[in-house]
Protein backbone atom coordinates (compact mmCIF):
# COMPACT_ATOMS: atom_id res chain seq x y z
CA UNK A 1 0.00 0.00 0.00
CA UNK A 2 1.17 3.51 -0.77
CA UNK A 3 1.92 5.75 2.20
CA UNK A 4 -0.14 8.83 3.09
CA UNK A 5 0.74 11.32 5.82
CA UNK A 6 -2.15 13.07 7.53
CA UNK A 7 -0.74 15.85 9.67
CA UNK A 8 -2.68 17.99 12.11
CA UNK A 9 -1.37 21.30 13.41
CA UNK A 10 -2.94 23.18 16.28
CA UNK A 11 -3.57 26.75 17.25
CA UNK A 12 -0.28 27.41 19.01
CA UNK A 13 1.72 27.14 15.78
CA UNK A 14 -0.91 28.93 13.69
CA UNK A 15 -0.67 31.94 16.00
CA UNK A 16 3.11 32.14 15.54
CA UNK A 17 3.95 33.46 12.07
CA UNK A 18 7.63 32.47 12.17
CA UNK A 19 7.05 28.97 13.55
CA UNK A 20 4.22 28.42 11.05
CA UNK A 21 6.36 29.50 8.15
CA UNK A 22 9.21 27.16 9.09
CA UNK A 23 6.75 24.30 9.71
CA UNK A 24 5.27 24.81 6.23
CA UNK A 25 8.76 24.68 4.67
CA UNK A 26 9.29 21.27 6.28
CA UNK A 27 5.78 20.08 5.36
CA UNK A 28 6.33 21.14 1.73
CA UNK A 29 9.51 19.04 1.64
CA UNK A 30 7.88 15.86 3.00
CA UNK A 31 8.08 13.34 0.17
CA UNK A 32 5.02 11.49 -1.03
CA UNK A 33 1.32 12.05 -0.51
CA UNK A 34 0.22 14.27 2.37
CA UNK A 35 -2.77 16.09 3.85
CA UNK A 36 -2.62 18.96 6.34
CA UNK A 37 -5.42 19.70 8.80
CA UNK A 38 -5.27 22.92 10.72
CA UNK A 39 -7.02 24.13 13.83
CA UNK A 40 -8.09 27.62 14.65
CA UNK A 41 -5.73 29.67 16.74
CA UNK A 42 -6.57 32.82 18.66
CA UNK A 43 -7.50 35.04 15.70
CA UNK A 44 -11.16 33.95 15.72
CA UNK A 45 -11.51 34.78 19.43
CA UNK A 46 -9.72 38.10 18.90
CA UNK A 47 -11.94 39.03 15.96
CA UNK A 48 -15.09 38.03 17.80
CA UNK A 49 -14.14 40.24 20.73
CA UNK A 50 -13.25 43.16 18.42
CA UNK A 51 -16.66 42.78 16.79
CA UNK A 52 -18.35 42.58 20.18
CA UNK A 53 -19.48 38.96 19.83
CA UNK A 54 -19.46 37.15 23.16
CA UNK A 55 -17.91 33.69 23.21
CA UNK A 56 -19.67 30.94 25.12
CA UNK A 57 -17.72 27.89 26.27
CA UNK A 58 -19.11 24.67 27.78
CA UNK A 59 -16.62 22.01 28.96
CA UNK A 60 -13.83 23.72 27.04
CA UNK A 61 -15.82 23.64 23.81
CA UNK A 62 -16.85 26.77 22.00
CA UNK A 63 -20.61 27.07 21.58
CA UNK A 64 -21.02 28.07 17.99
CA UNK A 65 -23.92 30.48 17.52
CA UNK A 66 -24.67 31.97 14.08
CA UNK A 67 -22.36 34.96 14.58
CA UNK A 68 -19.52 32.77 15.84
CA UNK A 69 -19.98 30.41 12.88
CA UNK A 70 -19.58 33.41 10.56
CA UNK A 71 -16.32 34.38 12.28
CA UNK A 72 -14.83 30.88 12.33
CA UNK A 73 -15.78 30.34 8.68
CA UNK A 74 -14.01 33.58 7.76
CA UNK A 75 -10.95 32.96 9.89
CA UNK A 76 -10.47 29.19 9.52
CA UNK A 77 -11.65 28.53 5.94
CA UNK A 78 -10.62 31.98 4.69
CA UNK A 79 -7.68 33.68 6.33
CA UNK A 80 -5.78 30.76 7.88
CA UNK A 81 -6.50 28.21 5.14
CA UNK A 82 -5.64 30.48 2.20
CA UNK A 83 -2.48 31.83 3.82
CA UNK A 84 -1.24 28.30 4.48
CA UNK A 85 -2.01 27.32 0.88
CA UNK A 86 -0.26 30.38 -0.60
CA UNK A 87 2.82 29.74 1.55
CA UNK A 88 2.94 26.08 0.54
CA UNK A 89 2.66 27.07 -3.13
CA UNK A 90 5.63 29.43 -2.62
CA UNK A 91 7.50 26.39 -1.25
CA UNK A 92 6.68 24.38 -4.40
CA UNK A 93 4.01 22.25 -2.75
CA UNK A 94 0.83 22.24 -4.84
CA UNK A 95 -1.66 22.70 -2.01
CA UNK A 96 -5.44 22.96 -2.31
CA UNK A 97 -7.37 24.37 0.64
CA UNK A 98 -10.80 22.94 1.32
CA UNK A 99 -13.57 23.06 3.87
CA UNK A 100 -15.85 20.08 4.38
CA UNK A 101 -18.43 21.51 1.96
CA UNK A 102 -15.94 21.71 -0.92
CA UNK A 103 -16.35 18.75 -3.22
CA UNK A 104 -18.49 17.24 -0.46
CA UNK A 105 -15.25 16.45 1.41
CA UNK A 106 -16.75 15.99 4.89
CA UNK A 107 -20.47 15.70 5.53
CA UNK A 108 -21.61 16.12 9.11
CA UNK A 109 -24.74 16.75 11.17
CA UNK A 110 -25.45 19.22 13.92
CA UNK A 111 -24.48 17.72 17.27
CA UNK A 112 -27.42 16.29 19.17
CA UNK A 113 -27.20 16.51 22.95
CA UNK A 114 -29.84 16.03 25.63
CA UNK A 115 -29.08 19.11 27.67
CA UNK A 116 -26.60 21.33 25.80
CA UNK A 117 -27.26 23.12 22.52
CA UNK A 118 -23.81 23.32 20.97
CA UNK A 119 -25.19 25.39 18.09
CA UNK A 120 -23.46 25.02 14.72
CA UNK A 121 -21.10 22.23 15.76
CA UNK A 122 -20.80 19.28 13.40
CA UNK A 123 -20.26 15.60 14.14
CA UNK A 124 -18.84 13.82 11.11
CA UNK A 125 -20.85 11.33 9.04
CA UNK A 126 -18.76 10.72 5.91
CA UNK A 127 -15.38 11.54 4.40
CA UNK A 128 -15.22 11.64 0.59
CA UNK A 129 -12.24 9.38 -0.08
CA UNK A 130 -12.70 9.50 -3.90
CA UNK A 131 -12.26 13.27 -3.87
CA UNK A 132 -9.15 13.08 -1.70
CA UNK A 133 -7.65 10.24 -3.74
CA UNK A 134 -8.27 12.13 -6.99
CA UNK A 135 -6.57 15.28 -5.70
CA UNK A 136 -3.63 13.33 -4.22
CA UNK A 137 -3.20 11.48 -7.53
CA UNK A 138 -2.88 14.85 -9.24
CA UNK A 139 0.00 15.61 -6.86
CA UNK A 140 -2.00 18.05 -4.79
CA UNK A 141 -1.77 18.24 -1.01
CA UNK A 142 -5.12 18.93 0.60
CA UNK A 143 -5.18 21.56 3.36
CA UNK A 144 -8.37 21.02 5.37
CA UNK A 145 -10.00 23.71 7.49
CA UNK A 146 -11.97 22.58 10.57
CA UNK A 147 -15.33 23.46 8.98
CA UNK A 148 -17.79 20.81 7.81
CA UNK A 149 -21.37 21.07 6.52
CA UNK A 150 -24.72 19.32 6.60
CA UNK A 151 -27.16 18.36 3.88
CA UNK A 152 -29.30 21.45 4.55
CA UNK A 153 -26.39 23.61 3.39
CA UNK A 154 -25.33 24.84 6.81
CA UNK A 155 -21.64 25.11 7.55
CA UNK A 156 -20.59 23.57 10.87
CA UNK A 157 -17.66 24.02 13.24
CA UNK A 158 -15.79 20.73 13.81
CA UNK A 159 -12.78 19.92 15.98
CA UNK A 160 -9.62 19.55 13.86
CA UNK A 161 -8.34 16.54 15.86
CA UNK A 162 -11.59 14.74 15.06
CA UNK A 163 -11.36 15.64 11.37
CA UNK A 164 -7.81 14.25 11.28
CA UNK A 165 -8.91 11.03 12.95
CA UNK A 166 -11.97 10.49 10.73
CA UNK A 167 -10.02 11.30 7.58
CA UNK A 168 -7.23 8.91 8.60
CA UNK A 169 -9.67 6.09 9.35
CA UNK A 170 -11.56 6.58 6.07
CA UNK A 171 -8.40 6.83 3.95
CA UNK A 172 -6.88 3.70 5.54
CA UNK A 173 -8.80 1.58 2.99
CA UNK A 174 -6.63 3.15 0.25
CA UNK A 175 -3.31 4.01 1.90
CA UNK A 176 -0.95 3.05 4.69
CA UNK A 177 -1.70 6.01 6.97
CA UNK A 178 0.68 7.80 9.28
CA UNK A 179 -1.39 10.23 11.33
CA UNK A 180 0.64 12.93 13.05
CA UNK A 181 -0.87 15.04 15.83
CA UNK A 182 1.49 17.91 16.35
CA UNK A 183 1.12 20.19 19.33
CA UNK A 184 3.25 22.22 21.77
CA UNK A 185 4.78 19.33 23.71
CA UNK A 186 7.55 16.91 22.67
CA UNK A 187 5.18 13.96 22.81
CA UNK A 188 3.29 12.12 25.53
CA UNK A 189 5.25 12.88 28.69
CA UNK A 190 5.54 10.73 31.82
CA UNK A 191 6.06 13.96 33.77
CA UNK A 192 4.33 17.03 32.31
CA UNK A 193 6.98 19.25 33.85
CA UNK A 194 9.84 17.36 32.23
CA UNK A 195 10.00 17.90 28.47
CA UNK A 196 12.48 15.06 28.13
CA UNK A 197 10.25 12.43 29.72
CA UNK A 198 8.79 11.43 26.33
CA UNK A 199 7.21 7.99 26.15
CA UNK A 200 8.47 6.77 22.75
CA UNK A 201 5.91 3.98 22.26
CA UNK A 202 2.53 3.24 23.79
CA UNK A 203 0.33 0.23 23.11
CA UNK A 204 -3.18 -0.28 24.41
CA UNK A 205 -2.10 -2.40 27.40
CA UNK A 206 0.51 0.16 28.48
CA UNK A 207 -2.01 2.99 27.94
CA UNK A 208 -4.57 1.28 30.20
CA UNK A 209 -1.87 0.85 32.84
CA UNK A 210 -0.74 4.50 32.60
CA UNK A 211 -4.34 5.69 32.86
CA UNK A 212 -5.00 3.42 35.85
CA UNK A 213 -1.95 4.82 37.64
CA UNK A 214 -3.12 8.33 36.65
CA UNK A 215 0.22 8.94 34.95
CA UNK A 216 -1.38 10.50 31.87
CA UNK A 217 -1.97 14.26 32.04
CA UNK A 218 -5.74 14.83 31.79
CA UNK A 219 -5.41 17.10 28.74
CA UNK A 220 -3.67 14.30 26.83
CA UNK A 221 -6.45 11.75 27.28
CA UNK A 222 -8.77 12.94 24.46
CA UNK A 223 -5.77 13.05 22.09
CA UNK A 224 -4.67 9.55 23.05
CA UNK A 225 -8.21 8.16 22.93
CA UNK A 226 -8.37 9.66 19.42
CA UNK A 227 -5.08 7.98 18.53
CA UNK A 228 -6.14 4.56 19.81
CA UNK A 229 -9.50 4.86 18.03
CA UNK A 230 -7.55 5.56 14.83
CA UNK A 231 -5.20 2.56 15.08
CA UNK A 232 -8.12 0.35 16.08
CA UNK A 233 -9.80 1.37 12.82
CA UNK A 234 -7.14 0.71 10.23
CA UNK A 235 -4.66 3.57 10.70
CA UNK A 236 -1.09 2.17 10.54
CA UNK A 237 0.73 4.60 12.83
CA UNK A 238 -0.11 7.62 14.98
CA UNK A 239 2.70 9.95 16.04
CA UNK A 240 2.24 12.66 18.68
CA UNK A 241 4.86 15.38 19.04
CA UNK A 242 6.05 18.91 18.45
CA UNK A 243 5.16 20.71 15.21
CA UNK A 244 8.65 22.25 15.06
CA UNK A 245 10.07 18.73 14.86
CA UNK A 246 7.96 17.40 12.01
CA UNK A 247 10.99 16.00 10.18
CA UNK A 248 12.14 14.11 13.28
CA UNK A 249 8.60 12.91 14.01
CA UNK A 250 8.42 11.42 10.52
CA UNK A 251 11.83 9.79 10.79
CA UNK A 252 10.82 8.37 14.19
CA UNK A 253 13.60 9.96 16.23
CA UNK A 254 11.28 11.85 18.58
CA UNK A 255 7.65 11.96 19.70
CA UNK A 256 5.33 9.22 20.86
CA UNK A 257 4.36 6.46 18.45
CA UNK A 258 1.22 4.34 18.58
CA UNK A 259 1.03 1.46 16.11
CA UNK A 260 -1.82 -0.62 14.75
CA UNK A 261 -1.74 -3.73 16.94
CA UNK B 1 -16.42 21.05 -28.45
CA UNK B 2 -18.17 20.54 -25.14
CA UNK B 3 -19.92 23.56 -23.63
CA UNK B 4 -18.77 25.29 -20.46
CA UNK B 5 -20.66 28.07 -18.69
CA UNK B 6 -18.58 30.61 -16.78
CA UNK B 7 -20.93 32.73 -14.73
CA UNK B 8 -19.98 35.81 -12.75
CA UNK B 9 -22.18 37.25 -10.01
CA UNK B 10 -21.57 40.62 -8.42
CA UNK B 11 -21.93 42.20 -5.03
CA UNK B 12 -25.57 43.27 -5.30
CA UNK B 13 -26.82 39.69 -5.36
CA UNK B 14 -24.31 38.48 -2.77
CA UNK B 15 -25.62 41.07 -0.31
CA UNK B 16 -29.19 39.83 -0.73
CA UNK B 17 -29.65 36.49 1.03
CA UNK B 18 -32.99 35.66 -0.63
CA UNK B 19 -31.92 36.62 -4.16
CA UNK B 20 -28.63 34.75 -3.74
CA UNK B 21 -30.39 31.63 -2.55
CA UNK B 22 -32.79 31.60 -5.51
CA UNK B 23 -29.92 32.35 -7.93
CA UNK B 24 -27.99 29.37 -6.54
CA UNK B 25 -31.02 27.09 -7.04
CA UNK B 26 -31.09 28.07 -10.72
CA UNK B 27 -27.29 27.77 -11.05
CA UNK B 28 -27.39 24.28 -9.48
CA UNK B 29 -29.97 23.22 -12.08
CA UNK B 30 -27.95 24.45 -15.11
CA UNK B 31 -27.10 21.32 -17.07
CA UNK B 32 -23.55 20.55 -18.08
CA UNK B 33 -20.21 21.95 -16.96
CA UNK B 34 -20.17 25.27 -15.13
CA UNK B 35 -17.96 27.58 -13.09
CA UNK B 36 -19.19 30.36 -10.78
CA UNK B 37 -17.11 33.44 -10.01
CA UNK B 38 -18.29 35.72 -7.24
CA UNK B 39 -17.43 39.27 -6.30
CA UNK B 40 -17.28 40.75 -2.87
CA UNK B 41 -20.38 42.57 -1.72
CA UNK B 42 -20.62 45.02 1.12
CA UNK B 43 -19.67 42.68 3.97
CA UNK B 44 -15.93 43.33 3.60
CA UNK B 45 -16.45 47.10 3.80
CA UNK B 46 -18.78 46.67 6.77
CA UNK B 47 -16.31 44.42 8.61
CA UNK B 48 -13.41 46.75 7.90
CA UNK B 49 -15.35 49.67 9.32
CA UNK B 50 -16.40 47.66 12.41
CA UNK B 51 -12.75 46.78 12.97
CA UNK B 52 -11.70 50.41 12.46
CA UNK B 53 -9.78 49.80 9.23
CA UNK B 54 -10.03 52.76 6.89
CA UNK B 55 -10.76 52.01 3.24
CA UNK B 56 -8.86 53.87 0.56
CA UNK B 57 -10.29 54.13 -2.94
CA UNK B 58 -8.54 55.44 -6.07
CA UNK B 59 -10.58 55.69 -9.30
CA UNK B 60 -13.26 53.43 -7.83
CA UNK B 61 -10.74 50.75 -6.95
CA UNK B 62 -10.08 49.65 -3.42
CA UNK B 63 -6.47 50.10 -2.37
CA UNK B 64 -5.62 46.85 -0.68
CA UNK B 65 -3.27 47.36 2.27
CA UNK B 66 -2.24 44.40 4.46
CA UNK B 67 -5.20 44.79 6.84
CA UNK B 68 -7.69 45.09 3.97
CA UNK B 69 -6.18 42.01 2.32
CA UNK B 70 -6.79 40.11 5.55
CA UNK B 71 -10.45 41.18 5.58
CA UNK B 72 -11.13 40.41 1.91
CA UNK B 73 -9.44 37.02 2.23
CA UNK B 74 -11.65 36.20 5.19
CA UNK B 75 -14.86 37.51 3.66
CA UNK B 76 -14.43 36.53 -0.01
CA UNK B 77 -12.50 33.23 0.21
CA UNK B 78 -14.00 32.30 3.59
CA UNK B 79 -17.49 33.47 4.39
CA UNK B 80 -18.97 34.15 0.93
CA UNK B 81 -17.23 31.32 -0.90
CA UNK B 82 -18.01 28.59 1.66
CA UNK B 83 -21.62 29.66 2.09
CA UNK B 84 -22.18 29.55 -1.66
CA UNK B 85 -20.57 26.10 -1.83
CA UNK B 86 -22.62 24.72 1.08
CA UNK B 87 -25.85 26.04 -0.48
CA UNK B 88 -24.98 24.55 -3.87
CA UNK B 89 -24.26 21.19 -2.21
CA UNK B 90 -27.70 21.36 -0.55
CA UNK B 91 -29.10 21.87 -4.09
CA UNK B 92 -27.31 18.73 -5.32
CA UNK B 93 -24.58 20.61 -7.19
CA UNK B 94 -21.15 19.27 -6.23
CA UNK B 95 -19.37 22.60 -5.84
CA UNK B 96 -15.76 23.16 -4.83
CA UNK B 97 -14.74 26.63 -3.65
CA UNK B 98 -11.27 27.82 -4.53
CA UNK B 99 -9.10 30.90 -4.36
CA UNK B 100 -6.35 31.47 -6.92
CA UNK B 101 -3.76 29.90 -4.62
CA UNK B 102 -5.67 26.60 -4.38
CA UNK B 103 -4.20 24.05 -6.76
CA UNK B 104 -2.33 26.98 -8.33
CA UNK B 105 -5.61 27.98 -10.00
CA UNK B 106 -4.71 31.60 -10.80
CA UNK B 107 -1.22 32.97 -10.52
CA UNK B 108 -0.85 36.75 -10.55
CA UNK B 109 1.63 39.50 -9.73
CA UNK B 110 1.27 42.66 -7.69
CA UNK B 111 0.04 45.47 -9.92
CA UNK B 112 2.82 47.76 -11.09
CA UNK B 113 1.86 51.40 -11.59
CA UNK B 114 4.02 54.50 -12.05
CA UNK B 115 2.25 56.73 -9.57
CA UNK B 116 -0.28 54.68 -7.55
CA UNK B 117 0.59 51.90 -5.12
CA UNK B 118 -2.48 49.66 -5.28
CA UNK B 119 -1.06 47.48 -2.52
CA UNK B 120 -2.02 43.81 -2.59
CA UNK B 121 -3.87 43.90 -5.91
CA UNK B 122 -3.09 41.14 -8.40
CA UNK B 123 -2.96 41.24 -12.20
CA UNK B 124 -3.40 37.75 -13.62
CA UNK B 125 -0.54 35.84 -15.30
CA UNK B 126 -1.85 32.29 -15.69
CA UNK B 127 -4.99 30.21 -15.26
CA UNK B 128 -4.47 26.50 -14.50
CA UNK B 129 -6.70 24.90 -17.13
CA UNK B 130 -5.58 21.34 -16.24
CA UNK B 131 -6.82 21.78 -12.68
CA UNK B 132 -10.17 23.18 -13.83
CA UNK B 133 -10.62 20.48 -16.48
CA UNK B 134 -9.83 17.75 -13.96
CA UNK B 135 -12.38 19.06 -11.45
CA UNK B 136 -15.05 19.60 -14.15
CA UNK B 137 -14.45 16.05 -15.43
CA UNK B 138 -15.17 14.79 -11.92
CA UNK B 139 -18.55 16.58 -12.13
CA UNK B 140 -17.52 19.33 -9.77
CA UNK B 141 -18.49 22.97 -10.31
CA UNK B 142 -15.71 25.34 -9.32
CA UNK B 143 -16.73 28.40 -7.26
CA UNK B 144 -13.92 30.94 -7.56
CA UNK B 145 -13.33 33.73 -5.03
CA UNK B 146 -11.76 36.97 -6.31
CA UNK B 147 -8.45 36.27 -4.56
CA UNK B 148 -5.28 35.31 -6.47
CA UNK B 149 -1.68 34.88 -5.32
CA UNK B 150 1.91 35.43 -6.42
CA UNK B 151 4.95 33.19 -6.41
CA UNK B 152 6.19 34.73 -3.16
CA UNK B 153 3.17 33.28 -1.40
CA UNK B 154 1.26 36.53 -1.01
CA UNK B 155 -2.48 36.48 -1.55
CA UNK B 156 -3.77 39.25 -3.84
CA UNK B 157 -7.12 40.96 -4.36
CA UNK B 158 -8.30 40.65 -7.98
CA UNK B 159 -11.41 41.99 -9.71
CA UNK B 160 -13.97 39.20 -10.26
CA UNK B 161 -14.91 40.46 -13.78
CA UNK B 162 -11.26 40.14 -14.78
CA UNK B 163 -11.00 36.65 -13.29
CA UNK B 164 -14.09 35.60 -15.26
CA UNK B 165 -12.65 37.01 -18.48
CA UNK B 166 -9.19 35.45 -18.04
CA UNK B 167 -10.66 32.11 -17.04
CA UNK B 168 -13.01 32.15 -20.04
CA UNK B 169 -10.18 33.00 -22.45
CA UNK B 170 -7.88 30.32 -21.06
CA UNK B 171 -10.57 27.63 -21.02
CA UNK B 172 -11.64 28.39 -24.60
CA UNK B 173 -8.89 26.06 -25.83
CA UNK B 174 -10.79 23.16 -24.23
CA UNK B 175 -14.47 24.15 -24.30
CA UNK B 176 -17.05 26.20 -26.17
CA UNK B 177 -17.38 28.97 -23.60
CA UNK B 178 -20.48 30.95 -22.71
CA UNK B 179 -19.38 33.72 -20.34
CA UNK B 180 -22.23 35.32 -18.41
CA UNK B 181 -21.75 38.62 -16.60
CA UNK B 182 -24.72 39.01 -14.33
CA UNK B 183 -25.42 42.29 -12.61
CA UNK B 184 -28.34 44.45 -11.47
CA UNK B 185 -29.54 45.61 -14.92
CA UNK B 186 -31.48 43.67 -17.57
CA UNK B 187 -28.59 43.90 -20.02
CA UNK B 188 -26.87 46.69 -21.94
CA UNK B 189 -29.49 49.43 -22.14
CA UNK B 190 -29.88 52.10 -24.83
CA UNK B 191 -31.43 54.30 -22.16
CA UNK B 192 -30.16 53.69 -18.59
CA UNK B 193 -33.49 54.93 -17.24
CA UNK B 194 -35.52 52.48 -19.29
CA UNK B 195 -35.09 48.89 -18.11
CA UNK B 196 -36.80 47.64 -21.26
CA UNK B 197 -34.36 49.28 -23.69
CA UNK B 198 -32.14 46.17 -23.76
CA UNK B 199 -29.85 45.87 -26.78
CA UNK B 200 -30.18 42.15 -27.56
CA UNK B 201 -27.03 41.83 -29.70
CA UNK B 202 -23.91 43.96 -30.06
CA UNK B 203 -21.04 43.35 -32.46
CA UNK B 204 -17.80 45.28 -32.53
CA UNK B 205 -18.92 47.66 -35.32
CA UNK B 206 -22.16 48.49 -33.52
CA UNK B 207 -20.27 48.89 -30.22
CA UNK B 208 -17.85 51.39 -31.82
CA UNK B 209 -20.83 53.31 -33.20
CA UNK B 210 -22.65 53.35 -29.84
CA UNK B 211 -19.50 54.53 -28.06
CA UNK B 212 -18.92 57.26 -30.68
CA UNK B 213 -22.48 58.53 -30.21
CA UNK B 214 -21.95 58.30 -26.42
CA UNK B 215 -24.97 56.02 -26.12
CA UNK B 216 -23.21 53.61 -23.78
CA UNK B 217 -23.49 54.40 -20.08
CA UNK B 218 -19.94 55.07 -18.79
CA UNK B 219 -20.17 52.38 -16.11
CA UNK B 220 -20.90 49.75 -18.77
CA UNK B 221 -17.77 50.45 -20.82
CA UNK B 222 -15.29 48.38 -18.74
CA UNK B 223 -17.76 45.46 -18.73
CA UNK B 224 -18.24 45.66 -22.51
CA UNK B 225 -14.52 46.11 -23.17
CA UNK B 226 -14.04 42.97 -21.07
CA UNK B 227 -16.69 41.15 -23.13
CA UNK B 228 -15.16 42.15 -26.48
CA UNK B 229 -11.67 41.18 -25.25
CA UNK B 230 -13.11 37.78 -24.34
CA UNK B 231 -14.76 37.09 -27.72
CA UNK B 232 -11.66 38.39 -29.52
CA UNK B 233 -9.67 35.73 -27.63
CA UNK B 234 -11.62 32.57 -28.28
CA UNK B 235 -14.69 32.89 -26.07
CA UNK B 236 -17.77 31.77 -28.04
CA UNK B 237 -20.48 33.93 -26.45
CA UNK B 238 -20.72 36.60 -23.76
CA UNK B 239 -24.11 37.36 -22.22
CA UNK B 240 -24.73 40.37 -19.98
CA UNK B 241 -27.90 40.53 -17.90
CA UNK B 242 -29.69 40.20 -14.59
CA UNK B 243 -28.65 37.51 -12.11
CA UNK B 244 -32.30 36.83 -11.23
CA UNK B 245 -32.86 35.84 -14.87
CA UNK B 246 -30.02 33.35 -15.24
CA UNK B 247 -32.30 30.74 -16.82
CA UNK B 248 -33.56 33.22 -19.43
CA UNK B 249 -30.03 34.52 -20.08
CA UNK B 250 -28.89 30.99 -20.86
CA UNK B 251 -31.87 30.28 -23.11
CA UNK B 252 -31.22 33.57 -24.92
CA UNK B 253 -34.60 35.18 -24.24
CA UNK B 254 -33.22 38.21 -22.41
CA UNK B 255 -29.95 40.09 -21.83
CA UNK B 256 -27.35 41.33 -24.28
CA UNK B 257 -25.38 38.83 -26.32
CA UNK B 258 -21.93 39.35 -27.83
CA UNK B 259 -20.68 36.61 -30.12
CA UNK B 260 -17.26 35.61 -31.36
CA UNK B 261 -17.06 37.28 -34.81
In words, what does this structure look like?
Two copies of one chain form a homodimer. The first copy, chain A, has 261 residues and is of the alpha/beta class. Chain A has one domain (3-259): Carbamate kinase (3-Layer(aba) Sandwich), CATH 3.40.1160.10. Chain A has helices spanning 11-14, 17-29, 43-50, 66-90, 129-137, 160-171, 204-212, 221-232, 246-251, and strands at residues 3-9, 33-38, 56-58, 61-63, 95-98, 106-110, 122-127, 141-144, 147-149, 155-157, 176-183, 237-242, 256-259. In chain A, strands 5-8-2-1-11-12-13 form a seven-stranded mixed beta sheet, with helices on both faces. In chain A, strand 3 and strand 4 (61-63) form a beta hairpin. The radius of gyration of chain A is 18 Å and the shape is globular. The mean pLDDT of chain A is 93.
Main sheet strand line-up of chain A:
5-8-2-1-11-12-13
Number of helices of chain A: 9
Largest sheet of chain A: 7 strands, mixed
**CATH class (first level) name of chain A:** Alpha Beta
Radius of gyration of chain A: 18 Å
- Please indicate the percent range of residues of chain A in DSSP E strands (runs of 2 or more): 15-25%
pLDDT averaged over residues of chain A = 93
Instruction: Please name the CATH topology of chain A.
Output: Carbamate kinase
CATH architecture grouping of chain A: 3-Layer(aba) Sandwich
User: What pattern of helices and strands is seen along the backbone of chain A?
Assistant: EHHEHEEHEEEHEEEHEHHEHE
Instruction: Supply the number of structural domains of chain A.
Output: 1
Largest interface: A-B, 43 and 43 residues
Amino acid sequence: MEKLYIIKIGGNIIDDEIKLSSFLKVFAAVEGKKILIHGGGKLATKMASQLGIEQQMIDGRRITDAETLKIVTMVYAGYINKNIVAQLQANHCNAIGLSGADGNMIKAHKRKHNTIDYGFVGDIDTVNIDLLQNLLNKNMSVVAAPITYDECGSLLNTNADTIAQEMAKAMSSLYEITLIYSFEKNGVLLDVNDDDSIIPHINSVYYAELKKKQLIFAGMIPKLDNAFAAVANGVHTVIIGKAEELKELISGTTGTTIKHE
